[in-house]
Amino acid sequence: MEQLIATIEKGQPFFNAIARNKYLKAIRDGFISVIPIIIFSSIFCLVASVPNIWGFYWPDDINNALWKCYNYSMGILAIACAATTAKHFADAQNRDLPKNNQINFISCMCAAIIGFLLLSSDTIATDAASGFNTTYLGSKGLLTAFIAAFVTGIIYKFFIKRNITVKMPEQVPPNISQTFKDIIPFSVCITVFWVFDIVFRAAFGFCFAQGVIQVFQPLFTAADGYIGLAVIYGAMSLFWFVGVHGPSIVEPAIAAALVANMTDNLAAFQAGQHASAVLTQGAQYFVVCMGGTGATLVLVFMFCFLAKSQEMRAVGKAAIVPVCFAVNEPLLFAAPIVLNPVFFVPFVFAPIANIWILKIFIDFLGMNGFMYTLPWTVPGPIGTIMGLGFQPLAFVMLALILVVDFVLYYPFFRAYDAQKCAEEAEISEEELAAKNAEKAAKLNDAFQGKADAKSVAAGAAAEAVKADAPAAVPTEATTASDLNGKRVLVLCQGGGTSGLLANALAKAAKERGINLETAAEAYGNHVDMLPDFDLVVLAPQAASYLADLQKDCERVGNKCVACRGKQYIELSQNGDKSLAFVSEQLSK
Q1: Catalytic residue IDs
Q2: pTM of the full predicted structure?
Q3: What is the per-residue pLDDT across 135-152, written as a single tens digit (0 to 9) for each?
């Protein structure tokens, strides 16, 4: 098993390169930016539809009002995604351009929206009025939205890089000059989309967005099969196990299907048909990742209540509450689970078993698939029942999943428990009690209300296992005069792990009377924030983006640094060390 893990680890540079790919990054960051639309609209969907299960139907005026809010948010999801993806792609393109000759991302966003509308919508004309056909403006148009964003970014870069723009005299104000500078790339973008749309419709008789759906439908169908689901979610867990951010690699490929299938399921259910799609956002949140990546909900209860090892019980007690809300950082690298050969098999295969059980219930027992989106922090069992519309079979399926996860994890848990008990037998009771009390206290302090399951710190755990990097040591240079008025931004994959260090710095600075400003954010949302900070710290699981971050920081003249695993953990738990680390980086 250790040999297998070592072999997989050798592929880390390749996987990290994939995660850094600017196209995949733009899709991921653009899609994350529109997640509030999905969750917000689903609230109205739940209120409008769930009461129907018990035979209650809203009056027509209330029902129409509820669905109007849903349609005017979820119904234009692809338009919003075209804009957000274009913005993030323009940011990536700007890294390769001189800082005095950058793509105007606002103009790029506008061009992407117009281009998307040309490719995806028909004009509906009546005697009284005219309007848009909205069929592909929502989740069905996401793939076309990504394509429109990329084409726009490529065209803009071509013209901006070669200075093929309308140049104005120096006396013209910069904002007016920028407007004229954008005319040529903007016009070319719209012309390209317009001509392509005319040619495509003449050749095939339908819009490009419909054609994209037809081309990719076989792939979506294959992804919704047993093998496709196993590959998708097995890969996601495998990447996390070796410290690579799995969703950065996997989710961009399935993001459109996750949302479109939820929409299709809801439409089928409302039409009295079988909601048969399995690959949905709800399934990923509450079935595949029940208790976080690796489906660790049952495991934390084993640690807490069944372990004989004092250390494992201490970890279980500290981790049980966050894991119940899908925040499993404490368990992942306190047990540890990540890069622990004992837990390789259940960590990778429990999510596969879970999604297969869901598919069996949908395919053979007639249960409807997930129709409603809830925040990922809803406890897995509750999210499963609500997302499936309180179907009776959902309760049966949930019980079966919990039993199967228990069976998968239990023998490996027992083996690890025996291993830890043997280790504990070699040290005195006093030393063991002190060690476990300190570990539990640090876990509670570090993770209570601060973590984010979308940014599980698997990378930190991986690095902590592989390298014993020395943490910064407090020095006399760590004084108020060194740090007063400074601003530090901490970045990670999802904005949660970065909060650990940002909060540790803020707390330590406040206790010592230092005026130090800190902030935590997800990598990808940082570009516009950089001018407001003096130092940017990159968390370990996002360390593969250091080269890109250095280019971003060079444009605004600030400093950046990436932390190693154990170093980052130590800094987030020790105020003196974190302040000394920041002081050292700023003084370089």
Answers
A1: 492
A2: 0.71
A3: 889 888 989 999 999 999
